[in-house]
Amino acid sequence: MKNTITFLCLLFAALAIKAQNKTTIAFLPMSYDEQSISSNEAKIIQETVINGFVSSKRFTVVDREKLEEIEKEKKLQRTEAFMDSENTVAEGLGKGASYLVDGSIIAISNSEIKKNKWTSTINIQIRMLDVSTGEILHTETVNSVFTPFNKDIKKVIKPYYSKDEYKRLEEKEKLLLDSSSTSSEAFNLALIPLSDNIIKATRALFPLPANIIGWKKKEKHEFTFGAGTAAGVQAGQIIDVVKTSTITMGDKEIERNEVVGSAWVIRVDDQNFSVATLINNQKDIKKAVKNGQPLGVLVR
User: Fold this and answer.
1) Which of 167, 231, 237, 279 could lock 265 by a disulfide, CB 3.0 to 4.6 Å apart?
2) Has residue 73 got a pLDDT over 60?
3) CB-based contact 300:239 (threshold 8 Å)
4) Distances (CA, A) of 29 to 6, 145, 227
């Protein structure tokens, strides 16, 4: 027997983000097996997913369950009793979503690997649908497996941390990789990478293109790019460095973004600008810059 809970469905269009207009998204019921998953666990997963996507600042979130209440309030405020009231419901709150996501919690695995040592893994599946057609645009399975930075990334980012900051980074990685003393503690820790992985999966499907504004003269591997807090860019993100070109296919011209390397976001300066440093392929990328080849980034 299955029950349902509301699940956040989020999607965005890259061009809309560039124009600072966010795609409106909504909730659909997410199913789970109530014999193996408690309603409390399902609710916590839902809230974690929602909070993760909201914090990305890339979407206008519409709670589908509240739309009916909003519409009722709007109708009430159109009656004579409310005609002179200034406290009307904003019309934008009732705007329908362009995209929906239907999904399910596949499994929550709490395992006691040895006495008083627990690990937890959460698996969910989401389906992205077009509201106007009902067509399934994409199906994605996301889990709570934590992937730490590899040695190449750590080598690049270490100089930007103080000793205490880098120590905290290592402690966080150790915490998320180690087992826990209770199953509930293990479950709570699994929620952290689950939220991160959902955001990564969504961004990978719909990456945000941004221009490289300029390169630092002293720190030659550092550059400024045109995306900031308004697009949900966060310090510590990994972004792709791409070579841009236009390909003619038949009577159409298509923009191509060829990934030539990766970079790590050092800091976010404001709503529109951030600074990153190259992780790999520094020589080839600097050669491309010297030769005047057009380069940009994709924020995933």
Assistant:
1) 237
2) no
3) yes
4) 4, 24, 33
Q: What percent of the chain has pLDDT over 70?
A: 78
Q: 166 and 158 in contact (C-beta within 8 Å)?
A: yes
Non-local CB neighbours of 290 within 8 Å, separated by 6+ positions: none
Q: How many CB atoms lie within 10 A of CB 7?
A: 25
Secondary structure letter of residue 72 according to DSSP: H
Q: Which residues contact 20 (CB under 8 A, 6 or more apart)?
A: 230
141 token code pair? 């399975």
d(CA 224, CA 34): 49
Q: Which residues pair with 29 in a beta bridge?
A: 6
Averaged pLDDT for residues 275-298 = 91
pTM of the model: 0.76
The SS3 call for residue 91 is: helix
Phi, psi of 175 (to 5 degrees): -60, -45
The token pair at 167 is: 């120590």
Per residue in 205-241, pLDDT tens?
777 889 999 999 877 899 999 999 888 888 999 999 9
Cα 195–Cα 197–Cα 199 angle in degrees, nearest 5? 75
Residue 15 has pLDDT above 50, yes or no: no
Residue carrying the six token digits 């934008």: 92
Per-residue pLDDT tens digits for 79-94:
554 444 444 433 433 3
Q: What is the structure's pLDDT at 68?
A: 56
Task: Determine how β-strand 99-114 pairs with β-strand 23-33.
Answer: parallel
C-alpha 122/C-alpha 108 separation (Å) is: 5
CA 56, CA 228: separation in Å to the nearest integer?
A: 11
Dihedral Cα 50, 55, 61, 64, nearest 10 deg: 20
